[in-house]
Amino acid sequence: xxxxxxxxxxxxxxxxxxxxxxxxxxxxxxxxxxxxxxxxxxxxxxxxxxxxxxxxxxxxxxxxxxxxxxxxxxxxxxxxxxxxxxxxxxxxxxxxxxxxxxxxxxxxxxxxxxxxxxxxxxxxxxxxxxxxxxxxxxxxxxxxxxxxxxxxxxxxxxxxxxxxxxxxxxxxxxxxxxxxxxxxxxxxxxxxxxxxxxxxxxxxxxxxxxxxxxxxxxxxxxxxxxxxxxxxxxxxxxxxxxxxxxxxxxxxxxxxxxxxxxxxxxxxxxxxxxxxxxxxxxxxxxxxxxxxxxxxxxxxxxxxxxxxxxxxxxxxxxxxxxxxxxxxxxxxxxxxxxxxxxxxxxxxxxxxxxxxxxxxxxx
Length: 363
Prior knowledge:
Blueprint: H1 13-16, H2 18-27, H3 40-48, E1 50-51, E2 57-58, H4 66-76, E3 81-85, H5 92-104, E4 110-112, H6 119-122, E5 124-126, H7 128-134, E6 141-143, H8 145-152, E7 155-159, H9 166-169, H10 172-178, E8 180-183, E9 188-191, E10 197-202, H11 214-217, E11 220-224, H12 231-249, H13 258-273, H14 292-309, H15 316-327, H16 333-344, H17 353-362
Parallel strand pairs: 3-10, 3-11, 4-7, 7-10
Antiparallel strand pairs: 1-2, 5-6, 8-9
């Protein structure tokens, strides 16, 4: 009997896009930094998508400025670490994962930053049973993802760097400047193998942000990922990601009509920017970030409702609850902003009457 692989909810980038990475590798004749799976040019092509000389189509992972991706990849080809910075939902983690997958073939050397992240999680820990039995030794050492990346010449990822306490953040300084990780208990150190680097992500809109010290900032080259420049770009991102996630989650609903996606994106952009798309009406912005990632979540939630409790077609009523939940984070302040938008903007648009009624019914 043949064993079958257990289906997972979300594959790592290097597995999900293994065919694209293999195809790029076969046709990539450009110089590669040591221990890189692809050349810098091929890494950018993997991120931005496009057709190869043999007609093979590489899907776009990032929709935006190619120059930003070139700067990010060029940074990793030097001895500098990369900091992807921006408001929530600007694809920082997504870009970080795909960069690591394309460069190292492994995006899993990840440290998730939280208020409780300790220095041991960034550097190394100990197997306490071994430690008590035999004292400090290589066998008792538990390497962190950072240490593994240094030993193997891979990319280490640190998510939400500014959520990590400031004194713990600064334990990265020696790693980034000297490319070495001292282990005083063993009187030894781990020196980084060529190909090692760090990609960190951070945003300035989260509660509990710990500013980076000047010394740590100097060790990073910062690339700011902006919100999508145009409505068309944002719609393209949402359509692409909703399609991919709908297939992965096996949602029993039709792909959303472009009109519905465009309406959700327009609502998000208008509330985010504090004015209507035509610039004629000023409106208040809610406390929520209303990122592209949240727009994707709203539509996926609507598709689940339409598929399991409706006729399989995404309609205004399916999107209403998810959208209100995305906008109204503060039940007092945001509720006022949302009601004002409903009455002064949405109610006045003749082709949005179904949306207006759906939201009013929810209220």
